[in-house]
Amino acid sequence: MMIRLNEYQFKEEYTYYILQSLKVGKKENFRRDFLNMHSMDQVNLFMELDETKRLRAYSFLSPAEFGHIFAELHPLQQKKYILELDHQYAITMLNELPSDNATHFIGLLSNKEVFSGA
């Protein structure tokens, strides 16, 4: 069942519990609630996270799961967030993206960024 936060009566409460699960390290609770959200709600919530919470979210989500969020981000946001990722996680995530999304992102990078692994 996909949850749309704009249709959810207790949006703030639902978001609060997701953020609490992330903060205290309840991986399974976070995954269950976060992955049940509509993809755009996932993106919006992700963009509200500070760096510490984003780093934990990366560890709670598989590269393929994060790839769905990554694909919806603006290119400047993509460049910012990919630098936070573990190198192998980033490679796996990009390999999981549909080829047109991955090609588009790589096309935005300079040669230096591509070859340095940024």
UniProtKB/TrEMBL annotation:
Residues 37-113 form the Magnesium transporter MgtE intracellular domain. Pfam families: MgtE_N. It comes from the Bacteria. InterPro entries: Mg_transptr_MgtE_intracell_dom (IPR006668), MgtE_N_sf (IPR038076). Signal peptide: none annotated. This is Magnesium transporter MgtE intracellular domain-containing protein. It comes from Paenibacillus profundus.
